[in-house]
Amino acid sequence: MNLRRSLSTLGLTALVAASTLTGGAAVGVAAAPAPVCVEPAADAHAKAKPGGSAKTDPNELTADQVTANEKALQAALKARGKAPAQAATAAAAAVTIPVVVHVISEDGTRANGNIPDSMITSQINVLNQAYSGGTGGAATAFAFQLQSINRVTNAAWYPIVYNSNTEKAMKAALRVGGAGTLNIYTGLLSQDLLGWATFPQSNLTTYDGAVILAESLPGGNASPYNLGDTATHEIGHWLNLYHTFQGGCNGQGDQVADTPAEKSAAFGCPTNLDTCKSKPGLDPIHNFMDYTDDACMYEFTAGQATRMLDAWNAYRA
Ligand SMILES: [Zn+2]
């Protein structure tokens, strides 16, 4: 049912475990499967499963995967001698993330992926507004600085096919920097997807990064997803955030205390939506980690900011 949905890719880590991060840590034996978030694009509405839920949608993270991820996060923090972050420190800590944007084009034309620099710089501005609290949410520790734009013309990589051998080969060929360098790949995406991203993990591979539909960048034609918040959302996953509807109305949901529970993804920009009536608060439809239109989403919470800083300290610092 999901317009933007999370997809666990069992076996993914094993498939890329032999790779090595360029300039980063050598990759060892594959551990737990790497969850990946996948965001179908606007015209994927036809694929929606009405009434679907995390329970019936095979693409949602399972409770067991969330439990494993949470254990891994705590273990990684401990291994690095880091205490869990507090909200105040999350806002105060200044982390500037270098961003490398790989622009994948079929033939070098604007129509086939070769978006202009102006769209990329606008995207970086959108990220900095979102992560600084400039759009109305909590300030996070993160800022983004464009390090380089890498223009690639390669018809074999266009579209970028999710979880394909060619996607893995593309990233192995192009990814630069260590665990703290954000590699973004833009292009046309398979399956009408808006984007996907990897969650952080100790055993990082060259698969790490965010893949974003080029037309979802500011100025693109993927309305109502063309204000740049697909990247905002995907980078939230890259910094370990789950969807706000993860886990539905049950348990710890998205593992963030100040995002109200939400039974399932919200679309468009609904008013007064309350899908978990036994839990406090309306659905967090304005949160970047829901599935609403770009114009509807404008905030991270303080709890999400803290969770992202923990993930940074555990995996990417
Ligand atoms: Zn997502």
Provide an overview of this structure.
This protein is of the alpha/beta class. The chain has a single domain, classed as Collagenase (Catalytic Domain) (3-Layer(aba) Sandwich), CATH 3.40.390. Helices cover 25% and strands 15% of the residues. It contains 7 helices and 7 strands; from the N terminus they run βαβααβαβαβββαα. Strands 1-2-6-7-5-3-4 form a 7-stranded mixed beta sheet, covered by helices on one side. Helix 4 links the parallel strand 3 and strand 4. Helix 2 crosses helix 7. The protein is globular, with a radius of gyration of 18 Å. The two termini are 36 Å apart. The N terminus is likely disordered.
CA radius of gyration? 18 Å
User: What is the 3D form?
Assistant: globular
Helix run count: 7
User: What ligands can be seen in this structure?
Assistant: zinc ion
User: In terms of per-residue confidence, which ranges show pLDDT below 50 for 5 or more consecutive residues?
Assistant: 1-33, 41-59
Order of helices and strands: EHEHHEHEHEEEHH
Largest sheet: 7 strands, mixed
Q: How many angstroms does the end-to-end distance come to?
A: 36 Å
User: What's the β-strand tally?
Assistant: 7
What is the total number of structural domains? Answer: 1
Strand content: 15-25%
Mean pLDDT comes to: 84
